[in-house]
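Can't paste images in this forum, so I'm doing it all in text. The chain is below; anyone willing to post the predicted structure tokens underneath?
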Amino acid sequence: MKSIINYILAIVMLSMTAFSIHAAKYEYRTVPNDPLKAKLYTLPNGLKVYMTVNKDQPRIQTYIAVRVGGKNDPAETTGLAHYFEHLMFKGTQNFGTSDYKAEKPLLDEIERLFEVYRKTTDEAERAALYHRIDSVSYEASKIAIPNEYDKLMAAIGASGTNAFTSYDVTCYTEDIPSNQIENWARIQADRFEHPVLRGFHTELETIYEEKNRSLTSDSRKAYEKMLALLFPNHPYGTQTVLGTQEHLKNPSITNVKNYHSQWYVPNNMAICVSGDFDPDNMIDIITKYFGNLKPNPNLPVLKFKEEAPIKAPIKAEVMGNESEMLFIGWPFPGSGSREVEVLDILSSILSNQGDAGLIDIDINQQHKALAAGAGMYNMADRTAFMLIGAPKEGQTLDEVRDLLLAEIDKLRKGEFDESLIEATINNYKRNVQSSIESNENRVSMFLDSFVNGTDWADDVASIDRQSKLTKKDIVDFANKYLGDNNYAIVYKLQGKDTTELKMSKPALTPIVMNREMSSDFLKEIQSSNVKPIEPVFLDYNKDLTIFNTKKSNIPVLYKKNETNGLFELTYVFDMGNRHNRLLGTAAQYLDLLGTKDMTAEQIKNELYRLGCTFFISPGTDRLYVRINGLSENMPQAVALVEKLMNEAVVDKEAYNGLVNRLLKSRDNNKSSESANQRALQSYMIYGDAAKKLNLTNDELRNLDPAKLTEAIRDLNSYKHRIIYYGPYSETELTSLVDREHKTPAAFKDIPNVPRLKMRETTEPVIYVAPYDSKQLKMMQYSNNGEKYNPSIEPVVTLYNEYFGGSMNSIVFQEMRESRSLAYSAGAYMSSPSYLDQPYVYITSIGTQNDKLFDAINAFDEIINNMPQSAPAFSLAKEGLDARLRTEREIKDMVAWSYINAQDLGETTDVRRRIFEALPSLTLENLTDYQKSDIAGRTYNYCILANIDDIDLDALGKLGKVVVLTTDDIFGY
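Text version of the structure:
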């Protein structure tokens, strides 16, 4: 929740004066000492272009942003910005259709019918109108080519095809190969200038599903209620991005078209790119395709009344299935304001990534509540600063409120160490170095600047200004803005939300998919002459240095960081919770402990001051001890971590607090939809075996905590490896490890404990567990026991790409586009991670309860009788080839790639085999694999739903039905 800008924007600057340079044709701006070395252009039509070059891999992350969002929706048709985002994937006059001239009269008739439908109140008349809309839409679908935008993206090797809508912006994302800039620009310009709103009623059903999904998110409901309290005169508080259920039931194509004409104009747009390209070439191409877009000189200005100051706490409640929580909020200006810049530091003094803030130490560390934190909900016009708390067992929400407000009082009184400010700045600098390694983070920074209307030079100077803040500044700020009474408070209570409306499924005719059709536009893109990029695969003998430490002979996987001053040091133990059930609890306990001469608070503060973090991550099969941060402070950080692991002092009170927290968290999990879903899936796949890895409630209560510190101390006595990525030389690293890493003279072998066995599906079983929600969650699982086979990996990979891998896949087309059964659905063959693990086939879907059997039947049909399409197969093959050519496993990824290969008995980069086999693979190969390995499989099902809405007798026709309780699936 903390501001993305302030976490990742800039390093300390010496001079912040922006200046201009004249290229051969275009003027652009740069900022001295900008870590991104960004170039900023504004075309004559007002289109803004943000560029930063990063040659780590031959790909480019692109964002095309329109400065319009939920706040700009007309009050009578909320959700419009988000709806239009979906429709932007439906094509144009040039693609997405086989004959636009023949299609247009049908689309016009659909538009006319919807205008009548939305004004009709008689339910019988509405049903008749909807039937007519469905009929005309079916006829139009015979001409349309669904998902052709996604096919275009597959053809150019794009990945990450997506979009998102917030209150302030609608943004369209693609990650493209660096040799496809021209094709990408051509497609996008046509899409933004001439969108055609086809597939309207089926996409509306998809949005219903997304709305249904949002209704199960209690935190989302609480945030929306908080905004309503803080900003009653602003659309942030009066409407939501997804819109009301009532408005979604009465859409208007005419309004959507007007919306596009008004807002989707170049002087309200920005193109943000980061990756491997030549800026002069990039701006040439963008100008060529986007330069003729017509601006709107009369862009509406959002007008609203200022909110009256809050003089007494404003309170509200929201209801939901999940456990109770408390939200306290104060209103602030928008993200680009100086107030929010100060607020960001204040927020980190309260709660930060190092768990060294006032709330972290005073409340979380001392178990005064189950959990608490602070952060900001950043938006362009307004910001909500929030404190969030969850009660421990027997605690009221008002008691949590008092604890949180007491920390604000400490701020106002200056009861904190000024060193927290300096430590926060050091961590922000570290985050900048880490974040700008990612192209997506880079364009996100540009996006924030554009949406917030800030000057890039001002953004770059942010940390420099923050570093000048003093303790007095923070105290004065807290006293000015965070008063005793000028806040809003939302009580998230547990119970039935009576405001939710049930949306019944409409009578929809599945649209025609026309997989064999291709527009001339797509054919031109596919036949365009693009110089191929040669792939680069890892050679572990050259790309990774492997040596042993001198003192303890520990294997080290070494990769030098030549990009920045950050390091990551990881101890890798091939043992996890199945080897020692205490490890998960021990890792959590260690976080609460100190040593004989340092308290837990002092250790956290010191690591935070060093700009370093440390955590122990135990999984089922492996445990990792990770230390990372600023390389200049690595010796002190490693020494401190080793000291804690080897000298932690047992604290019985801290353990009792941990147990109470774990027991309360377990109880809360039973009311969480996502936790129930994970538990049910685990039960289906592993039975009771997975649950037995967890300590029981009684075991937790009766455990001697000394056994936990002993388990941590004992770790280094087992054989393990070290992974290092950082600036140190091999000699420097060896010296540090030999000096600080505490190990015995001889290592113990890893205990030989059988791997957790996945159930084979010898007969169909349907596991049903209860959860009261408008949307059920279903997974199918099939395990025939086949072990890893490197020779079939190429065809498995291509099958997943063709059948379930993207928006162009069969699953997406059938389950979402054609039948409108879900917002998201997937199906794929999952390859083993270890030699002794099996291949398993997985499907997943979230859908309305009354669509369950439609979903089951649809999956059964397309999995067992896979639709075959030569054009779709070619696109899947082209897309996979392009990604394999342009993917680069670099930096710390090299060592992890090596370990993953070892787990499968491989000695080379497994991607090379796939790439080399790909040219010879045919649709016939894929069909043969589907018939031999996919069709006719036996499945287990797990369904999380309101059981009263499920026909168990009908499910019984599929196989044995096992109705489980919540306690059954959790095991505690």
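The two ends are 32 Å apart (CA to CA). Residues 670 and 676 are 6 Å apart (CA to CA).
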